[in-house]
């Protein structure tokens, strides 16, 4: 009975429902079968235990960026988000020169092989100049399948997702190529129509990159990409639940249309996540963070919202306390759905026997009180 941790007394959120006064037993880094007569190691009465969060779209945190091209910076970003409950994450790059992106991918691929990351998400450069947001317009290019292939190859098997604008020349062909290589094709930073978006989904696109942001608005005679991505059951829609990118009413609309099983909360966080206001780099650009909102500081895209400073513990709390979602739906959007999207649902995303002991402890006000990853406390709950 060595190396066995028994967490008891909490409300445990399982796929089947919330168990009051439930217990989670951890052994050898995994969730083990619970024996009710066993004495608890830690009494978490008054707390929630939810699965560790899974972020499929994050650029950095703790003052560090995945685009910096060093393992040291990447690990700083990883540690920052882990301390906020994200136990699985995909590192996102921003638009850059192809050779630069290939170099960044090599570093991130190594961290993926070590198990520190769940892969790489290339956001750009194959996106629309009309919807580039914080991406540098002069570095954008059409999605030539040969170039897309180059980036995928540079990631040595770690490429998990690519955001592109499918209406650009080569767009549909690139979506097909990504799908064939097991890389998620994500529609985003796009000026696509409703019809063209449905074509992209038919070609294999399965994700909407931060739905509503960096794409045409939903209009009653021109539903655009938003309606197409919401209605098709093959698509998971990313939402940035920071209160800046989306109004709670719009977030609720997305849940009502797509259902709780097709939404993935993301941070889209840049280096300032987990830090104070100030100036931060985002790829080759400078970003000013004021009152927690990040905007491009200078150049042609000055003033654009540049990612977020969100962490997923805050997204969870907002989901329940501001957006009015049931705790179980918040868990789906933060853990189960993104885990399934990444093909990792056999290991992470829910509190079930045999899976990695990745879990988050929240107090009665939904504030983060503990984080465990693979059976080890990264943030140890202080319980009286
Ligand atoms: Zn992003």
UniProtKB/TrEMBL annotation:
Chain ranges of the Amidohydrolase-related domain: 48-377
EC number assigned by the record: 3.5.1.25
MF annotations from Gene Ontology: metal ion binding; N-acetylglucosamine-6-phosphate deacetylase activity
Cofactor binding annotation: Binds 1 divalent metal cation per subunit.
Swiss-Prot/TrEMBL catalytic activity: N-acetyl-D-glucosamine 6-phosphate + H2O = D-glucosamine 6-phosphate + acetate
Pathways per UniProt: Amino-sugar metabolism; N-acetylneuraminate degradation; D-fructose 6-phosphate from N-acetylneuraminate: step 4/5
Binding site for Zn(2+): 123, 189, 210
Active-site residues from the entry: 268
InterPro entries from the UniProt entry: Amidohydro-rel, GlcNAc_6-P_deAcase, Metal-dep_hydrolase_composite, Metal_Hydrolase
Class of this enzyme: hydrolase
CDD domains, per database record: NagA
Cofactor: a divalent metal cation
Protein name (database record): N-acetylglucosamine-6-phosphate deacetylase
Source species of the chain: Streptomyces olivoverticillatus
């Amino acid at each position: 009975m060595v190396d066995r941790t028994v967490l008891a007394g909490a409300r445990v959120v399982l796929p089947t429902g919330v168990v009051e006064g439930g217990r989670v037993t951890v052994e050898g880094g995994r969730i083990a079968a619970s024996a009710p007569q066993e004495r608890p190691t830690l009494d978490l009465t008054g707390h929630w235990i939810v699965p560790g969060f899974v972020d499929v779209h994050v650029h950095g945190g703790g003052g560090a960026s995945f685009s910096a091209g060093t393992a040291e910076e990447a690990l700083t970003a990883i540690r920052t988000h882990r301390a906020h409950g994200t136990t699985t994450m995909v590192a996102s790059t921003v638009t850059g020169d192809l050779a630069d992106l290939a170099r960044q991918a090599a570093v991130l691929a190594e961290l993926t092989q070590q198990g520190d990351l769940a892969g790489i998400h290339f956001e750009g450069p194959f996106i629309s100049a009309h919807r580039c947001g914080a991406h540098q317009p002069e570095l954008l290019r059409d999605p030539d399948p040969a170039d897309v292939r180059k980036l995928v190859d540079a990631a040595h098997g770690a490429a998990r997702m690519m955001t592109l604008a499918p209406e650009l020349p080569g767009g549909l062909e690139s979506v097909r190529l990504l799908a064939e290589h097991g890389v998620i094709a994500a529609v985003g930073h796009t000026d696509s129509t409703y019809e063209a978006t449905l074509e992209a989904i038919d070609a294999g696109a399965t994700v909407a990159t931060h739905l509503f942001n960096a794409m045409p608005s939903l209009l009653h005679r021109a539903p655009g990409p938003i309606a197409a991505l919401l209605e098709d059951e093959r698509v998971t829609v990313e939402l940035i639940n920071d209160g800046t990118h989306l109004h709670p009413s719009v977030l609720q609309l997305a849940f009502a249309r797509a259902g709780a099983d097709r939404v993935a909360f993301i941070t889209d966080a840049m280096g300032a996540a987990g830090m104070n206001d100030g100036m931060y780099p985002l790829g080759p650009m400078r970003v000013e963070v004021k009152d927690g909102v990040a905007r491009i500081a200078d150049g042609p895209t000055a003033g654009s919202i540049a990612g977020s400073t969100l962490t997923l513990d805050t997204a969870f709390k907002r989901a329940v306390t501001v957006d009015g979602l049931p705790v179980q739906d918040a868990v789906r959007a933060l853990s189960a759905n993104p885990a399934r999207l990444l093909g990792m649902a056999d290991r992470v995303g829910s509190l079930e026997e045999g899976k990695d002991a990745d879990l988050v402890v929240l107090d009665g006000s939904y504030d983060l009180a503990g984080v465990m990853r693979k059976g080890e406390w990264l943030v140890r709950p202080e319980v009286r």
